[in-house]
Design goal:
By secondary structure, the chain is α/β, with parallel strands linked by helices. It contains five helices and five strands. The two termini are 12 Å apart.
Length: 149
Protein backbone atom coordinates (compact mmCIF):
# COMPACT_ATOMS: atom_id res chain seq x y z
CA UNK A 1 0.00 0.00 0.00
CA UNK A 2 1.43 3.34 -1.03
CA UNK A 3 1.65 5.89 1.74
CA UNK A 4 1.87 9.63 1.20
CA UNK A 5 5.10 11.41 2.00
CA UNK A 6 4.79 13.46 5.17
CA UNK A 7 6.92 16.39 6.23
CA UNK A 8 7.83 17.68 9.64
CA UNK A 9 10.39 19.12 11.97
CA UNK A 10 12.55 17.78 14.76
CA UNK A 11 12.82 19.23 18.24
CA UNK A 12 15.51 18.40 20.74
CA UNK A 13 14.38 17.50 24.25
CA UNK A 14 17.12 19.41 26.04
CA UNK A 15 15.99 21.00 29.27
CA UNK A 16 17.42 24.40 28.40
CA UNK A 17 15.68 24.51 25.04
CA UNK A 18 12.04 23.98 25.96
CA UNK A 19 10.92 27.40 24.67
CA UNK A 20 12.64 26.61 21.36
CA UNK A 21 10.98 23.18 21.20
CA UNK A 22 7.62 24.80 21.87
CA UNK A 23 8.20 27.44 19.16
CA UNK A 24 9.33 24.91 16.53
CA UNK A 25 6.28 22.77 17.27
CA UNK A 26 3.98 25.82 17.07
CA UNK A 27 5.50 26.72 13.68
CA UNK A 28 4.91 23.17 12.40
CA UNK A 29 1.34 23.24 13.71
CA UNK A 30 0.51 26.64 12.20
CA UNK A 31 2.25 25.92 8.90
CA UNK A 32 0.34 22.73 8.18
CA UNK A 33 3.31 20.40 8.51
CA UNK A 34 2.44 16.80 9.31
CA UNK A 35 4.84 15.76 12.03
CA UNK A 36 7.12 16.78 14.85
CA UNK A 37 9.63 14.18 15.98
CA UNK A 38 11.46 14.12 19.30
CA UNK A 39 14.53 11.96 19.86
CA UNK A 40 14.49 9.63 22.86
CA UNK A 41 17.68 9.43 24.89
CA UNK A 42 16.50 8.78 28.47
CA UNK A 43 20.05 8.25 29.73
CA UNK A 44 21.02 11.85 28.84
CA UNK A 45 20.69 13.92 32.01
CA UNK A 46 20.35 17.13 29.98
CA UNK A 47 17.20 15.93 28.20
CA UNK A 48 13.61 15.84 29.38
CA UNK A 49 11.65 12.62 29.04
CA UNK A 50 10.58 12.37 25.41
CA UNK A 51 7.07 11.08 26.01
CA UNK A 52 6.40 13.69 28.69
CA UNK A 53 7.65 16.38 26.29
CA UNK A 54 5.42 15.05 23.50
CA UNK A 55 2.45 15.25 25.87
CA UNK A 56 3.35 18.84 26.80
CA UNK A 57 3.74 19.84 23.14
CA UNK A 58 0.49 18.13 22.17
CA UNK A 59 -1.34 20.18 24.80
CA UNK A 60 -0.04 23.37 23.15
CA UNK A 61 -0.95 22.46 19.55
CA UNK A 62 -4.01 21.29 17.70
CA UNK A 63 -3.08 19.76 14.35
CA UNK A 64 0.48 18.45 14.09
CA UNK A 65 1.16 14.80 14.90
CA UNK A 66 3.97 14.05 17.33
CA UNK A 67 6.15 10.98 17.65
CA UNK A 68 9.41 9.76 19.14
CA UNK A 69 11.68 9.67 16.11
CA UNK A 70 14.05 7.45 18.07
CA UNK A 71 12.62 5.25 20.81
CA UNK A 72 15.14 3.68 23.16
CA UNK A 73 13.73 0.16 23.41
CA UNK A 74 16.33 -1.18 25.85
CA UNK A 75 15.12 1.41 28.35
CA UNK A 76 11.47 1.46 27.26
CA UNK A 77 9.94 -2.02 27.15
CA UNK A 78 7.72 -2.22 24.04
CA UNK A 79 4.50 -2.94 25.96
CA UNK A 80 5.01 0.10 28.18
CA UNK A 81 6.01 2.31 25.24
CA UNK A 82 2.83 1.24 23.43
CA UNK A 83 0.72 1.97 26.53
CA UNK A 84 2.30 5.40 26.99
CA UNK A 85 1.88 6.30 23.31
CA UNK A 86 -1.73 5.07 23.31
CA UNK A 87 -2.47 7.22 26.35
CA UNK A 88 -0.89 10.31 24.78
CA UNK A 89 -2.81 9.55 21.58
CA UNK A 90 -6.09 9.64 23.53
CA UNK A 91 -5.09 12.84 25.33
CA UNK A 92 -4.10 14.52 22.03
CA UNK A 93 -7.22 13.49 20.07
CA UNK A 94 -5.37 11.04 17.86
CA UNK A 95 -2.17 12.93 17.14
CA UNK A 96 0.39 10.42 18.43
CA UNK A 97 0.61 7.38 16.17
CA UNK A 98 1.04 4.01 17.80
CA UNK A 99 4.69 2.98 17.89
CA UNK A 100 5.53 0.19 15.51
CA UNK A 101 8.08 -2.49 16.13
CA UNK A 102 9.03 -2.17 12.48
CA UNK A 103 9.96 1.43 11.95
CA UNK A 104 13.28 3.02 11.24
CA UNK A 105 14.94 6.37 11.47
CA UNK A 106 17.71 8.26 9.60
CA UNK A 107 20.60 5.96 11.55
CA UNK A 108 19.26 3.40 8.95
CA UNK A 109 20.90 4.46 5.65
CA UNK A 110 23.03 1.49 4.58
CA UNK A 111 21.79 -0.56 1.63
CA UNK A 112 20.76 -3.46 3.91
CA UNK A 113 18.98 -1.17 6.37
CA UNK A 114 17.10 0.54 3.56
CA UNK A 115 15.98 -2.86 2.23
CA UNK A 116 14.73 -3.77 5.71
CA UNK A 117 12.79 -0.50 5.88
CA UNK A 118 10.99 -1.43 2.67
CA UNK A 119 10.39 -5.02 3.70
CA UNK A 120 9.34 -4.51 7.30
CA UNK A 121 8.77 -0.90 8.31
CA UNK A 122 5.65 1.23 8.11
CA UNK A 123 7.69 4.40 7.77
CA UNK A 124 11.12 5.97 7.58
CA UNK A 125 11.97 9.14 9.46
CA UNK A 126 15.03 10.56 7.78
CA UNK A 127 17.13 13.60 8.63
CA UNK A 128 19.24 15.67 6.24
CA UNK A 129 22.48 15.23 8.23
CA UNK A 130 22.20 11.45 7.70
CA UNK A 131 20.77 11.33 4.20
CA UNK A 132 21.16 14.34 1.89
CA UNK A 133 18.14 15.13 -0.29
CA UNK A 134 19.90 14.06 -3.50
CA UNK A 135 20.06 10.46 -2.18
CA UNK A 136 16.33 10.23 -1.48
CA UNK A 137 15.21 9.10 -4.98
CA UNK A 138 17.75 6.25 -4.95
CA UNK A 139 16.85 5.15 -1.42
CA UNK A 140 13.11 5.47 -1.99
CA UNK A 141 13.45 3.17 -5.01
CA UNK A 142 15.18 0.55 -2.84
CA UNK A 143 12.41 0.89 -0.22
CA UNK A 144 9.68 0.55 -2.85
CA UNK A 145 11.30 -2.51 -4.45
CA UNK A 146 11.78 -4.21 -1.08
CA UNK A 147 8.18 -3.45 -0.11
CA UNK A 148 6.87 -4.97 -3.32
CA UNK A 149 9.04 -8.08 -2.91
Amino acid sequence: MTQPVKFGLNVDPNTGGLPIAERITAIADASGLDLVGVQDHPYNDGFTDTLALITWLAARTSHVHLFPNVANLPLRPPAMLAKQAATIDVLSAGRVPAPRTTSACGSASSARAIQLVGAKADGWSVSVPYVPPDRLPELNQIITSAARD
